[in-house]
Fold these 2 entries.
Entry 1:
Amino acid sequence: MKKSVFLGTLSAAALSAGIASAATLDDVKARGELNCGVTTGLTGFAVPDANGNWTGFDVAVCRAVAAAVLGDPAKVKFVPTTGQTRFTALASGEVDMLARNTTWTFSRDTDLKFDFVGVNYYDGQGFMVRKDLGVSSAKELAGATICIQTGTTTELNLADYFKANNMEYQPVAIETNAEGEQQYLAGACDAYTTDASGLAATRAAFADPENHIILPEIISKEPLGPLVRHGDNEWGDIVMWTLNALVAAEEYGITSANLEEQAANSPNPEVKRLLGSSEDDLGAMIKLDKEWAKRAIAASGNYGEIFAATIGESTPIGLARGLNAQWTQGGLLYSPPFR
Amino acid sequence: MNNQVSYVRTQMLAQQPPPGREMGAVKWMRENLFAGPINSALTILGAAAVVWLIASAWPWLAASVWNASTLSECREIIAASWGEGHHGACWAVIKDRWQQYAFGFYPSDLYWRAILALGLLFFALTPVLFAANRRVANRVMGVVSLVVLAFVTVAEFRLIDPADAAAHSIWAAILTVTLVLAVLWAVHIFAPSKLIWFTAIYPGLGFWLLWGGSVWLPVVALAGFVIGWLAFRAAQPFGGPAQLVAMLLVPVLWWIYGAGVAADVLNRIIPFSIEAVGSDKFGGFVLAITIGVAGIALSLPFGIVLALGRQSNMFLVKALSVCFIEFIRGVPLITLLFTASLLLNYFLPPGTNFDIILRVIIMVTLFAAAYIAEVIRGGLAALPRGQYEAADALGLDYWKAQRLIILPQALKISIPGIVSTFIGMFKDTTLVVFVGLLDPLKGITDIVRASTDWKGIYWEPYIFVAAIFFIFNFSMSRYAMYLERKLKTDHR
Amino acid sequence: MANVHDVPKDTFRLSMLLYDTRYRSLTIQVVIFMLFMAGIAWLIDNTVDNLRALGKDPVFDYSFLGNRAGYDISQRLIEYTNDSTHARAMLVGLLNTLLVSVLGCIAATILGVFAGVLRLSKSWIVARLMTVYVEVTRNVPLLLWILLVYAVFTEAMPAPNAFRPNAEGVAGASMILGDSVAITNRYTAIPNPMYVRDLGTISLGIVHISVNFLVLVAIIAGSIWANRRILAHAAAVQEATGVRPTTWWKSLLTLFGPVVAFLWFMGFHLEYPELKGFNFAGGINVTNSLMALWLALTLYTAAFIAEIVRAGIQAISKGQTEAAFALGLRPGRTMSLVILPQALRVIIPPLISQYLNLTKNSSLAIAVGYLDLRGTLGGITLNQTGRELEAILLMAGIYLTISLIISGAMNVYNKSVKLKER
C-alpha cells in the first residue's frame, strides 16, 4: 500500500501516464481503502477521539460508503481538510469523496466541477448572541461586530444579508470553529454566525448555555452534503445511493438491530430489494454486490440512528431533527425509490 | 637632577581589608545592579517586571489540576479547592492527551518504532557531528540509548491501547530495540569508522520504521545510490563528464522504471514486511520532527549543488541557481505549502497521487535547499582563496577539488548555520496545519478542543507545546554555538 | 621569439565539445538548458493534462479579478465594499500586508535595538531578563506567539462597554495616554488625524489618493532634501575654512517648519475616539487581529534584531574607541563617526534580511483572520473562484516583487558601505 506513496507512484506514473481519469471505483477497490475528506475537527460532525478513531455525522457517511464498496466500514482513511484545501483535495484526487459540511451551491456544482450527490443535513445560517445584549432579532444587529469563519459561504451570506437590510457590521474573520468560539466567549464579537447546527453544537458546550440565544432568523439555505468529482458518474451514483439507502432505511424502519430480520422477513418488496434479499440485483447495476446497502446500513445504522448517535437530542449537541426529519414526519428527507 | 627626596616612607602600612562596598555581595550588587543612576533605574524596572510577571502568573499556576477527565470536572476541582471564580491551570488535558501531542494517531502498539526511528537519528548523526570527539560521541549515544530504552519501556507498558494490545508482544518490541542499540554500540566500539555506513542507510531505515511496509522499498531506493556509484565506476573509461551523466542518469532511471518492479519481485521472493502505518496517522511532534529532519536531510545535497551552481563560472548554471534561490527565499513558506497542497498535484504526471505529507516534504525540501545553499555559500566564501588555488595547483579537476579540498572545509564551517536553518525549519513545521496536517501546535490542539471533553481549553496546550519547542530548539541552538566556538579555535 | 608557438589551430572536431575545456562549459550549459526546458515543458504538459482531466480550461485566465468579490474586509486602508472587485480586494490585502510589515519593521527595530543594548547592560538583572526574552522568543514558533498575543487581547482586555461608567459613575476600564487610546477586546481605538480644509482626492485608476497626503509627503521630501543641502554646505565650508558653521537650528527649521506650517494651514487636528452606543467612534478602530499580528511579529523579530545589534556592537574592537579618544574626539563624535559607521556595516545587512523575514512572516495573518494578501487573494478569492493556479502564482509573484525590492535596497546599501579596499 505504501508503494502508492513513494517509488511505486513514480514508476506507476511513468508507466501509466495517460490513464488519467481512471474510474474512482476501481481505484478505491484496488487500494482497498476509501479516502474521505472531512473537517479538521468539528464536534459532532467529524472528530477523532484520543485514539484517532474518527466519529461523527459526516464520518458515518464515509463509513457507509466504505462498507458498501469495500465491505468494511473501517477501511476509510480520513483526510482532514480545511475550508481552503478541501476542494483541491477532491479535485486532485487526493480524496475520493468529501463529506465535510459543504454547502451545495450553483457555482461549486458547475464552475468548480464537482457533483453534489445529495443532502445529508439541511442547515441554514444563524446568529448566536449573548442574552444580555438584549437583541431578539437579527434585524437589530446593525453596527454589531460579528465573528465569521473565512473560506465559507457564510461570509458571502452575511454580506448579502446586511446589505439587503441596509445595515452596517464589522466582520471579525476567524480561521476555525474553535477559534470562533473562543473569540465570541471572550466578547471579541457581539454575535457569532455560522450554520445553525454548528451554533447549537457550540452553545451546548458552553459552561453557561442559558446565557446565550440563537436568533430566530435563518438567513440562508445551507444544504450540506457529500460531493464527488464531476465526470465520474459511476462513482457519484454509488455515493448518492448509499446516502439514499441510509435515508430509505429509516423510512422503512430498517435499523442496524433488525437488519437481518428485515432482510429475511420483510413483507415490503422494496426493503428486500434494498437489502439484496430479493431476486432483483440492484448492486450489479452500480458494479457492487447484492448486499451493498445492507452493509452500508449495518456500518452505523440508518440515517436516524446516525443522527441520534452523533448530533441528536440525546448528545451534548442536542440538535432536533427539524428539516432533517423524514418527509413523512414533515421534514425534507425523501429518498427516491429503490427500483 | 635633584636626588633629595623630601619624604620616603620606610615602613609598609599593614594591609587593610577592602572597604565594605568593595566586598562580597555589596560589591557585586554595586557593580552589577547599581552601577550609576541609569543602571540602578534599569535594575529597579527589571526587578519590578519580574515581580509583576510572577505575581500575575502565580495564582493561575498555583491552582494547577493534573487529574481530571474533562474540562468541566477540572473547573469543578478548581472551584472546590481554591474557591468559586478562581482561575487555574488545567494540566489534566496534557496528561489526558499528551500521546496525541507526541505521536498524533500513530498506532499505540507501534510507538516503539517511532521512538526508535528518532533515537537512531542521533546514532546516524554521531559520525558526522561528533566524529572528532569520541567522548562527546559516547556521551550522546549513551544518553540517547537510555532515553530510547526508557521511552520504549514506558510506551510498551503504559501507553498501549487495549484495542491494539491483543496481537502485540511487549517483550519482542523491547528486545528488538535493545538488539538494534546493542549492534550499533558494538560497531561504535569495535569499528567506529564503520558507523558512517549506518548513517548512509539511515534514511531508508528511518522511513521503513516510521511508515512500515515491505522492507524492499527502502532497500531498492537506497540501491539507487549504489547503482549510481557503479555507473560512475563503469563510465570511467569515457571520461569525467560521462561519469557524471551516468552517475545522475542511471539512478534516476532506476528509481523511475526499475525500483518499483524490483521491489515487487523481491517482495514476492522474500516477503518481509512490518505493519504499515499510513501518513494520515502521523501527527504531533512525530510529524514535526519527520518533516523537519526529512526536509533538512534531503535538502543538503540539493543545497550543496545550488551553492556550487551559484558560484559557477557558467552563466546559465549561475543564473538558474540564483533564480531558484531568490524565488524560494522571496516567497513565504505558507505560499509554498499552499502550492504543495493545491498545485503540486497539477504539476505531477496525471494519475499520480502523492500523499500530502510527501508533497509537504517536497516543498519544505525545496524551501530548505535555498536557505542551505546560502549557508553553504557563506562557508565557501569563508574559505581562503589559497585553498582553491592550491587545489588548482595540484592539478585537481573541478569535482575532485570540490570533493577533496573545498567542500569538506566549507561544510564544516557551515554546520552551525545548518543547525540554525534546521531550528528555523522545525519551528516552521507548525505551519503545516494550514494545509490540514496535524501539527502539534494548532492541529492537535484544535482536535483536542473539538472533543466535547476539552471544549474551551485554551492556554494550557499552547504553553505545553511552547515548552517542548523551547527545549528542542534551545538545546540545538546551544549546540550550534558550541560548534561555532569550537570551529573558531580551529581556524584562527 | 621563434621558440614560442601559438597553440596549433586544429580543425574543429566533435569530441572537442566534451574534452576541450574551451568548449566544455558551453556544452554543459547547452545540455543543462535543454534539460531545464524539458523539465519546464514536462511540468506545463502535466498541468495542462491535469486541468483538462478536471474539465478546467488550461489557460491563464485572470478575468476573475474583475468579478464582484462579495465578501467584507473589516481592516482596510482604502475604500472597499463587498461590491468591489476581487482585484480591489487583492489590493486591500496587499496594502494590509505592507501596513503590518512596515509597522512591524519600525517597532521591531526600536525594540530590538533596546533589547540588544540592554543585553549588554551592566545591570545583571536587566541583562539576564533580556537574555531570557531573546532565547524564549527565538526558540518558540512564531505561530504560537501570534496565537498567544491574540488570546491576550481577546481574553484579557476589557470589552468596549466596560468603558462606560456604571450607575455609581465608575467605569470598569479607562482609556490610556490622556484619554486618546482605548484598548478593547475587539479593537484598539486611536485618534484619527483630520484636516479642516481638504484639497480633495485624485484618482489613479482604481486607487484614490488624498491630495493632502500627497502634499504632506512632498513637503517632507522637500524638507529632507533642503536639510541635506544645508549639511552639504556646512561640510563644504568646513573643508574650506576648517570651521563648521552651526547648523542645528537651520536643520530643525527646515525639517519641521514647513510641515508644521502646512498642518496648521490645513487645520490639522486629532479626532479622539469616544464611546458612542456600544462601540468607540470618532477615532480609528484598529482591529485586534492587526494589533496581535503586529505585536507578535514585533516581539519575535525584535529578538533576532537584538542579537544582530549585540553582535554588531561587540564586533567593534575596543581599540577603535581608544584610538578615537586618543585623537581627541569627544564620546558623542566617537560614537557617530567611528563606532556607528563600523557597527552599522555589520548590523544593516542581517537587519534588512530580518525585515524580509518579517514581511514574509506576515502571511501568518491567516492564524488570526487578518486579511492580508494571502487572506484575500490567496484565501477567500481563491476559494470562491476556484482559480488556485492563477491566484497562487499571482500571489507568489507579488511577494517575490516585495522581497526583491527589499533585497535590492540591501544590495545598494551594501555597495555603498563596502570597505574600500586597496
Entry 2:
Amino acid sequence: MSTDIVHSEASISSGNIHLPEGPICLETRHLSMFYSSTQALFDISVSLPANQITALIGPSGCGKSSFLRCFNRMNDLIEDSRVEGQVLLDDVDINTPHTDVVELRRKVGMVFQAPNPFPMSIFDNIAYGPRLQGIRSASRLEEIVESSLRAAALWEEVKAKLHDSALALSGGQQQRMCIARALAVEPEVLLMDEPCSALDPTATFHIEELMLELKKRYTIVIVTHNMYQASRVSSHTGFFMLGELVEFDRTEVIFESPTDRRTDDYIRGRFG
Amino acid sequence: MRDHRFRTLLAQNAAFVLLWLAMLLALAPVLFIILTMLVKGLPGLSWSFLTSHEAGMLPSIVGTVLLVLLTGLITTPLGVAAAIYLSEYARPGPVSRLIRLAILNLAGVPSVVYGLFGLALFVTWLHMGRSLLAGACTLALLVLPLIISASEEALRQLPRGLREGSLALGATRLQTIRRVVLPNALPGILTGLILALGRAAGETAPILFTAAFFSLTDPFPSKLTDPIMALPYQIYVMATEIPNLPPEQKWAGALVLLVVTLGLNLGAIVIRARLRKKTRW
C-alpha cells in the first residue's frame, strides 16, 4: 500500500476535527508516528477534554492503539519507532530530550487489553507502583491499597484475601485490579487499551460503571472495538482509519450525524 | 462410512503404538545403564571403599562437589547477566547476532579443547597451577554458553504484558528486571543451571589438565589453588591405568559418580520446585 495516497486523504478530512470546549488535558499537534519505514499515524492534531472519557474507535490496525501509546510513550519500547510533531500533557511537550519518562508514566496510567497481573499477591500488585516511588511504611501502603481497590470497586470482593495470589482472581476482577494498580500511583490520566475485550458482558458492565465513576477524578482515554461501549461511556469520540484521525467530535454527533462518509459507513457496520 | 471410521481408528492406534515404542527405545538405554551399574557396582561398594582416603572415593566425591559448586558460583552471575543483557538490553542487529552465533559455536566446541585452553590460560599463563580454581574456571567456560542460552530463553518466554505493566507504572528498566522479570524467570534459569552443572560434574577432559591429580599427598584441598581428585577422573584412571583393580570396584566408582550427579541435580530440582510454588502462573 502506498503511504502517499493515505496521506492525501488525511488532508481532505482535516475539517472534521471538532475540538472540545472546556479544559483540555491531552493534545497532539501534527503528530505522525512511524514503525521503521511504515507510517502508522498521519499528522494528527486534536485535543482531549479533561475529566471526560474520550473513545477511540476504528477498524483493526487503524492506529488507535499506537495513538493511545503516544501519551505515555509506550511506543518507545518498540525498536525503530519514531514520533514527529508534538504530544502535550497539560500544555507540556512530553517528547523532549529532558522529559522524565518514568514520571510521565506515573502521571499517565495504562490498562492493557489482557489483564496483566504480576504473579504476586493482590496487595503486592497494588503496592508495586507506590513502592517504586519509595513508599515503605506498611500503614501508608495499606491505606493506598485499600483506597485504590475501593476506587476500582473491588475492595469488598478481595478484602479478605489481599495476600492471596492475584492470579486466582477472575478475568474481570483481574482487570479491575489492574485499574486499581494504575490508580495507586495517583495518575492524572488513565489510558485504556480495549480493556474489556477479554471480558464477559457482566464484567464489561462493571468496568463501564467504574469508568463513569472514575472520570470525576481522572481523564480517561479508551480504545475500543465495541461501538456500543463507546456510545455508552464516552463524551467524545475519535474515528481512526488507516492511521489518520478521520473525525473527532462529541460522541452523539459521531454516532448520529457524522460528517465523513467513512465514519458513517463504519458506525453503520458497512465495513470493518 | 463405517470403513472410514475403522481406518481412522486404526491409524490413531498405530500412531499411538509407534510413539510409545519410540519412547521406550529412548528410555531403554538409560534403564539398561542404570541397572547394569547397580548390578555390577553394588557388590563393590563398601563403607571403606567410599570413605578410605587412600583407595577410596571420598576425596573424589568432595573434589567433584567442590568443583561443581565453585563452577556454579563463577558461572551463574556471569551467565545470567549476559542473558539479561541479550534479552533486555541488546538491540537486535549485527552485533547481537554475532554474539548469539559465538555462543552457539562455543556450545559446540569439544570439551578437550576447553581443557587445553584452560591449561594454557588458567594453569600456565595466570599461574593458578593445577588447582580447584583453574578447573572450576575451565568448567565455567564450558557451561557458560549453555547457561546463557537457557537463561535467555527463560527470559524471553515471559509474557510481554508483564514488562509493559511494570514500565507503565513508572518503573525503570532495571526495576522491572529486578522486581518482575528475574523472579519470574528464575525457575527457567535454574533448569538451565541444573543441566549445565550436571554436565560439568561428569566431564573428564576439561579437568584432566587443569585440576585433577591422582596421587595426592593431601587428599582434600585446603585452598583454592590446591589440586583435587574428581570422580570422572578417578573412574578414568581406575578403568585405564590400574590393571589389577577388581572390576566391581570400577563399576562401583561409576555408580558413585552417577549418584552424586543425580544428587546434585535432585537438590537443584527441589529448590526450583519451591520457587515455582511461590510464583505460580
